[in-house]
Specification:
The structure is a single chain. Helix 7 packs antiparallel against helix 12 (425-438) and helix 8 (247-278) runs parallel beside helix 13. A 7-stranded mixed beta sheet has the order 18-30-29-28-19-26-27, sandwiched between helices. Strand 21 (543-549) and strand 22 form a beta hairpin. By secondary structure, the protein is of the alpha+beta class. The model is unreliable at 157-164 (pLDDT under 50). It contains 25 helices and 30 strands. The chain has 5 domains: 3-162, Alpha-Beta Plaits (2-Layer Sandwich), CATH 3.30.70; 167-267 and 387-450 and 731-781, no CATH class; 286-379, Calcium-transporting ATPase, cytoplasmic transduction domain A (Distorted Sandwich), CATH 2.70.150.10; 461-489 and 606-723, HAD superfamily/HAD-like (Rossmann fold, 3-Layer(aba) Sandwich), CATH 3.40.50.1000; 491-605, Calcium-transporting ATPase, cytoplasmic domain N (3-Layer(aba) Sandwich). It comes from Halanaerobacter jeridensis.
């Protein structure tokens, strides 16, 4: 399969409630010849696929797989494109008419693509220009009305995570009514004194009402060869109870299994709602200003350069620059920081922020799909696709656990009666049925992914973006943390401390020479020199031959003079006879036409929480803290001593930082090593480390791309919060593993010795699953 032909797609699975079914869907989709990889995110009801060929047809195949495994599941493609619209055609029952609709819509002017999925009754229309989409949708509706007048057309605007909860509530009410009806027949059968035939009829009615969903699924599973499916096993167990005359237990097992599944669905839905609230930063509308008038539009429709107005109480829809007004904005949803910050004219404002007061006029700097809010949502929503090793282990374990228990049940049913004198076959069959009831691994396959996703959601609430459960779990094995200095442990805001001119030069002349050579640089050091310079305005046209010399400094020409500004390496490389400075700080030596002109000392403040953050990391079990910096030895030593780092390396070029990181990784074979940097200059080291952590990544494309974890608040102490979340998540996950396997193992053992009934077996199955899900919710709430 050629990589160039591989396309990535996100599919959303509406009404998907069964975690075990989700794993089966993932496994079957991976077996399709066009699919290179498939990663199911059960918590978000999403499947990430990499595939070749016709994606529309592939989605249809995947829809059929999903419907076979869990009937009622609706598969749709995630819509990230503003020029793509989706229509739901309710009441469409004619396949031939569906083909006609698709053909006619394809022929409309400016329609790039149209596809009607008859099974899901969804029409997807992609237009060439977003401005024409409303007109084309209107024409599409006319075509549908002409061909199928009774079809009701609804535009789909919400994804599965944000679907109306009333549909879920209606389903729960129907299920509750069905189970109550079955329970009524069951109660009558228990209370009334009936003949054998009467008991069989009442218990049978109760059994069919309560268990018809399980029974129908089981029959379908049997024809597909899925003999280890929980529906098939539950059917065999309960029918077996009827066969040996245990009518009450047969109905009770099915009833409590279904009640447990109902409560489990409620718990999972509650968990999803909690995650949705954590990510409730998606803006609903944007106030587009055109010709002095305001018009409400979808944020997807905004273009770079548009002018929007953000009123008090509204969410900022896209990243932009304030061009008029000032206000206090709440950035808690982005950074976890509860204290509002003030924005005013000329400042950047990020999507997802909430305008608390005032009126802001903003120029759009990024389209919605590239804005901070969109990136955060994608990052968090897709994080669960990167499974932690524990999740992968549980998935593999579940594949072997159920068949092992089933074969154990067969052996338990038939071997003892053959070997033990006086053993009654029906007694051992009853014990075997207990094994079948306990065999479903739902408690693990639901709660473990939910736990890791809850940890990722909890971290995002604190302003920590973790790209996957694998990185969250890796934080538990962290024993070495390597920090960049500038902008990570220090503020990265430089101030000129001293100006020391050489003989024949004044401070003003030295500052002017430095300002000229630094004029075209965006480096914080250059900015500090330009701020300190108070002389006549520098003219760009007088500067030529500007050059950045990696790891050394800058050179430029002005008024026929060659000016050098940089560290001692630059002076030595050019044979400049300079006077070494004996000061703590970053030293910038200046030379003009090969003659030494003096030096400027610049210093950077240590962040207020750096020292406590490093100490807290030590308290959490981090064995070694290292600092890497391109700054000089004196500055590095001062910062290292003040913060108490275990080791530091100074004067490093970007490639030398990578080499040093590789040395540290080589030394630390038994644990994980993290590198914490600014996410822009340190991208190569971030990529090379076990865990790349970007500081102050808010709005930074490079940070989100290069790092595995992004600390949005720009505080080293956020890393300790991330480690704490990882520790708590691991604690809950292992509590669930021990609970599920412990209870199931105990009931299996008691059942084998005839000391447990099906009632205990049902608790070991759905009861434990429910408890595990509720326990996992604790992570989200933390």
């Amino acid at each position: 399969m050629e990589a160039s032909n591989v396309k990535k797609e996100t599919l959303i699975f509406e009404e998907l409630q069964c975690a075990n079914c989700a794993n089966k869907i993932e496994a079957e989709v991976e077996e399709l010849s066009e699919v290179k990889s498939a990663k199911m995110n059960f918590s978000m009801k999403r499947l990430e696929i990499e595939a070749t060929g016709d994606l529309e047809r592939l989605v249809q195949d995947i829809s059929e797989i999903a419907h076979d495994i869990e009937p009622g599941t609706i598969v749709k493609r995630k819509n990230n494109q503003s020029n793509k619209r989706e229509l739901k055609l309710e009441g469409l029952s004619c396949a031939n008419c569906a083909n006609k609709i698709e053909d006619n819509v394809k022929q409309l002017a400016n329609v790039e693509q149209a596809h009607l999925n008859f099974s899901s009754k969804k029409l997807t229309v992609k237009v060439e220009e977003e401005g024409l989409s409303e007109k084309i949708i209107a024409e599409t509706k006319e075509i549908i009305n002409d061909l199928e007048p009774d079809v009701i057309v609804k535009e789909e605007t919400e994804e599965a995570l944000h679907e109306d909860t009333s549909a879920f509530n209606d389903t729960m009410k129907k299920e509750s009514g069905r189970l109550l009806s079955g329970a009524l027949f069951f109660a009558l059968a228990l209370l009334l004194d009936l003949s054998f035939t009467g008991e069989l009829m009442l218990y049978g009615m109760a059994y069919l009402i309560v268990g018809y969903k399980v029974l129908t699924k089981a029959v379908k599973d049997m024809f597909k060869g899925q003999l280890f499916d929980e529906n098939f096993l539950m059917t065999i167990a309960t029918i077996g109870a009827f066969a040996i005359g245990e009518f009450p237990e047969g109905v009770a097992v099915m009833l409590f299994y279904e009640v447990g599944e109902l409560f489990q669905d409620l718990a999972v839905n509650r968990s999803r709602n909690s995650i949705q609230k954590l990510m409730d930063i998606r803006p609903d509308i944007a106030n587009l200003k055109e010709d002095g008038e305001l018009r409400q539009v979808d944020p997807n429709q905004l273009q770079i350069g548009d002018t929007i107005v953000v009123k008090a109480g509204e969410k900022v829809p896209v990243d932009g620059q304030v061009i008029d007004g000032e206000a206090m904005v709440d950035t808690a949803a982005l950074t976890g920081e509860s204290v509002p910050r003030k924005v005013e004219e000329g400042e950047e404002i990020l999507s997802g922020s909430i305008n608390q007061d005032g009126l802001l006029t903003v120029r759009v700097e990024k389209e919605f799909k590239d804005s901070t809010v969109s990136k955060i949502l994608d990052l968090v929503e897709n994080a669960a696709s990167e499974k932690a090793p524990t999740e992968n282990f549980i998935t593999k374990f579940a594949r072997y656990y159920t068949p092992a228990v089933v074969f154990g049940a067969l052996g338990l049913a038939f071997i003892p009666p053959l070997l033990i004198s006086g053993a009654v076959l029906s007694d051992w069959i009853y014990r075997a049925l207990i094994f079948l009831v306990v065999s479903c691994p739902c408690a693990l396959v639901v709660s473990i992914p939910l736990g890791f996703f809850g940890g990722i959601g909890s971290a995002s609430k604190k302003g920590i973006l973790i790209k996957g459960g694998n990185y969250l779990e890796a934080l538990n094995e962290l024993d070495t943390v390597v920090f960049d200095k500038t902008g990570t442990l220090t503020e990265g805001v430089f101030d000129v401390q001293t100006v020391v001119p050489a003989t024949g030069w004044t401070e003003e002349e030295l500052l002017e020479a430095a300002a000229v050579v630094e004029y075209n640089s965006n480096h914080p050091i250059a900015q500090s020199i330009l701020e300190a310079y108070q002389g006549p305005a520098i003219e760009q046209k007088t500067i030529s031959d500007y050059q950045e010399i990696a790891g050394k400094g800058l050179s430029a020409r002005s008024d026929e003079q060659e000016i050098l500004a940089g560290n001692h390496k630059l002076m030595e490389a050019n044979g400049i006879n300079y006077q070494a400075a004996d000061e703590v700080g970053t030293i910038i030596y200046i030379a003009v036409d090969g003659n030494y002109a003096g030096y400027i000392a610049i210093d950077d403040k240590i962040k207020s929480d750096s020292k406590s953050a490093l100490q807290n990391l030590k308290d959490l079990g981090i064995e070694r803290v290292v600092m890497l910096t391109g700054d000089n030895e004196q500055v590095a030593q001062r910062v290292a001593e003040e913060l108490g780092v275990d080791n530091y390396y100074a004067g490093l070029l970007p490639d030398e930082k990578v080499d040093k990181m590789e040395e540290i990784l080589e030394e630390n074979q038994d644990g994980k090593s993290a590198f914490v940097g600014d996410g822009i200059n340190d991208a190569p080291v971030l990529a090379r480390s076990d865990i790349g952590v970007a500081m102050g990544g808010l709005g930074s494309d490079a940070a989100i791309e290069a790092a595995d974890i992004v600390l949005m608040k720009d505080k080293p102490s956020n890393l300790t919060e991330a480690v704490k979340v990882a520790h708590f998540t691991r604690k809950i996950v292992w509590q669930n593993i021990v609970l599920a396997l412990g209870v199931k193992g105990l009931v299996l053992l008691l059942g084998a010795f005839g000391m447990a009934t099906m009632w205990e077996a049902v608790f070991a199955d759905v009861g434990v699953a429910l408890l595990a899900v509720l326990n996992a919710i604790r992570i989200i709430k933390k």
